[in-house]
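Ops channel
N.P.: pipeline sanity check, posting one input/output pair.
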């Protein structure tokens, strides 16, 4: 027994010493005993072993994934195919180390079989000659699944085979064959548990031979993007197979295959999350592209009889874009072991780069092209929906409007009351309301509501504005802050579409989504489309005024929002987000999960997975309007399949 382990036991903290020490461990009897004790106590293990090895056991689970480095050869990528899992072991294939390694695996198998009634050892290795027929291309994912001749876990083997067959890497389906063997191990390496011993123990062994399509067959160079895709796909295959194994051959009953994923996150995850959050918090894109002279610009435009594009003035940038991008790409995302999080963090890194580019290109012709990279184009379906709204909803006459208004100060009081409702659940909330002279309208920035000092909110729109700004944007920011990942409040890649769709839906649920409001959102889509077709500021304004009958100031505000910065296409996501959200809820999608933080609809599956893995929790805050019976009644109509035009008709 090593000195550190002895000292740890004297202190009653052998597990903590075992888990935290950075020294390399030799697999001795004392080490194996310490590992078994920690497994029995239900504590995680993460230890470095000799020859670049590592053992990672997240918690008590009835399986482990193993990879052994081929003796005398350098591994390029294959070990990463097990590092995604909650229980894995990487070790050297050197002959002198195999006896100790086999004892460690046997000790783990005995311990976990006692807990779960059965245990699965899954060993992975590579081969450059998986197929002998010479017909398969280098890029075809190819697997050989090795199962014992006396197959005592047929349902698990079938599930494994089926999951592999359903896999696609870069749109290429996998070639899979099941091979039966008495003893299962990589070529040239001894078995870790002999079949006769495994049978007596109640342990089972499977092997997976992988064709390394993630390396060039000629140069041997790594193909990192292919490796990332294979890792993500294989991780799902493992979990689905382990799920079948646990339910059919052990006493463990996970509620979902994602429940078998990793819970403990390595330091690299939290470091990258913090670094990306710090970079994101270093600037505010919306403030950066919002003119500070909106009212003066309107007066200038009016004096020109709507013939001359106004000059827009912006805040000085608080950042050096080039230094910030240097910091952005210093974030070591490649060190993450979880493939789902790695993919997500890479996407966020790319999104932040585009946001920084937008600020650097503010006022130039390149601005609109970068905006398109962030928010996409106006597709035919969205354009058709916008036209339907504008054609079927009559424009409001100048004397038809709500004659009762709340000024900035009065609306601020209402907003403070809405935030106070959230404080009843979370007293530590620091969100505040600010009345400012450098913005027009309403804006949420970093969990705070900013109100332009000349704002006038129609009384009929107050509930809708509060549910939009406080009940959605501030609430999801605060719920995101309550989670472990900072990404949940700074926003996952592409989160704006769902955020704005959810905010507009909340307006309908509180009874404040009028036909005029939908016309406004549809007009923004048309304005973006006109911008992308090459129309000028004045031409877009005239189209909104003449064709769609918007009042002068409304047409100006829409046009200015679209042309700010040099062509900001974000405003089309309001209607697009609402349309997609209506479809999601019609298909039975869960509304409550959307309040966990700021993310895209495409991330719902990942959020659910992370909740099942106990990495994320439920949202602590719920919008106040969900307590309203009328809102729940309207939500029921949405779930039954209400359309945009039906919403207009109802209102």
């Amino acid at each position: 027994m090593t000195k550190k382990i002895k000292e740890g036991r004297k202190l009653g903290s052998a597990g903590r010493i075992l888990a935290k020490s950075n020294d390399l461990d030799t697999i001795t009897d004392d080490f194996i005993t310490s590992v078994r004790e920690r497994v029995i106590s239900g504590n995680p293990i993460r230890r470095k072993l000799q020859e670049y090895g590592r053992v990672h056991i997240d918690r008590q689970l009835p399986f482990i994934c193993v990879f052994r480095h081929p003796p005398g050869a350098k591994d390029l990528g294959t070990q990463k195919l097990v590092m995604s899992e909650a229980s894995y072991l990487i070790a050297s294939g050197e002959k002198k180390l195999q006896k100790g390694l086999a004892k460690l695996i046997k000790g783990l198998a005995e311990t976990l079989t006692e807990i779960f009634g059965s245990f699965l050892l899954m060993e992975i290795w590579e081969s450059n000659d998986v197929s002998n027929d010479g017909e398969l291309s280098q890029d075809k994912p190819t697997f050989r699944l090795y199962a014992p001749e006396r197959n005592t876990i047929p349902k698990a083997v079938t599930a494994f085979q089926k999951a592999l067959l359903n896999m696609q890497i870069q749109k290429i389906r996998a070639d899979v064959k099941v091979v039966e063997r008495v003893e299962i191990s990589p070529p040239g390496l001894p078995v870790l548990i002999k079949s006769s011993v495994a049978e007596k123990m109640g342990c089972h062994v499977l092997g997976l031979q992988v064709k390394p399509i993630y390396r060039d067959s000629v140069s041997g160079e790594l193909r990192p993007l292919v490796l990332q895709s294979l890792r993500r796909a294989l991780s799902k295959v493992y979990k689905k197979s382990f799920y079948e194994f646990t339910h059919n051959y052990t006493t463990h009953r996970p509620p979902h295959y994602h429940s078998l994923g990793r819970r403990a996150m390595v330091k690299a995850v939290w470091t990258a999350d913090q670094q990306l959050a710090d970079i994101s918090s270093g600037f505010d894109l919306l403030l950066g592209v919002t003119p500070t002279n909106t009212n003066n610009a309107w007066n200038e435009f009016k004096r020109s009889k709507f013939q001359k594009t106004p000059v827009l003035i912006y805040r000085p940038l608080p950042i050096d874009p080039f230094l910030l991008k240097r910091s952005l790409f210093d974030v070591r995302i490649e060190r993450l072991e979880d493939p789902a999080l790695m993919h997500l963090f890479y996407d966020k890194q790319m999104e932040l780069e585009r946001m920084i580019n937008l600020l650097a290109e503010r006022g130039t012709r390149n601005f609109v092209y970068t905006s398109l990279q962030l928010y996409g184009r106006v597709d035919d379906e969205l354009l058709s929906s916008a036209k339907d709204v504008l054609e079927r909803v009559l424009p409001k006459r100048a004397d038809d409007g709500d004659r009762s208004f709340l000024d900035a100060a009065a609306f601020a009081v209402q907003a403070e009351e809405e935030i106070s409702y959230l404080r009843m659940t979370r007293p530590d909330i620091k969100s505040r309301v600010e009345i400012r002279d450098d913005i027009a309208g309403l804006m949420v920035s970093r969990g705070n509501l900013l109100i332009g000092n000349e704002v006038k909110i129609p009384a009929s729109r107050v509930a809708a504005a509060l549910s939009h700004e406080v009940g959605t944007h501030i609430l999801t920011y605060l719920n995101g802050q309550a989670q472990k990942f900072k990404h949940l409040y700074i926003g996952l890649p592409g989160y704006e579409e769902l955020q704005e769709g959810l905010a507009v839906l909340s307006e309908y649920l509180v009874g404040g989504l009028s036909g005029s409001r939908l016309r406004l959102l549809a007009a923004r889509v048309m304005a973006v489309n006109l911008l992308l077709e090459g129309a000028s500021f004045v031409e877009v304004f005239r189209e909104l005024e003449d064709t769609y009958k918007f009042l002068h100031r409304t047409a100006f505000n829409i046009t200015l929002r679209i042309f700010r910065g040099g062509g900001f296409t974000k405003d089309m996501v309001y209607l697009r987000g609402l349309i997609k959200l209506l479809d999601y809820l019609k298909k039975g999608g869960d509304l409550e999960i959307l309040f966990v933080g700021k993310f895209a609809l495409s991330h719902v599956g990942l959020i659910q997975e992370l909740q099942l893995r106990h990495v994320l929790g439920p949202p602590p805050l719920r919008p106040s309007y969900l307590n309203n019976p009328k809102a729940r009644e309207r939500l029921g109509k949405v779930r039954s399949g209400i359309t945009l035009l039906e919403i207009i008709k109802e209102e």
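N.P.: looks fine end to end. The first strand starts at residue 45 and ends at 49.
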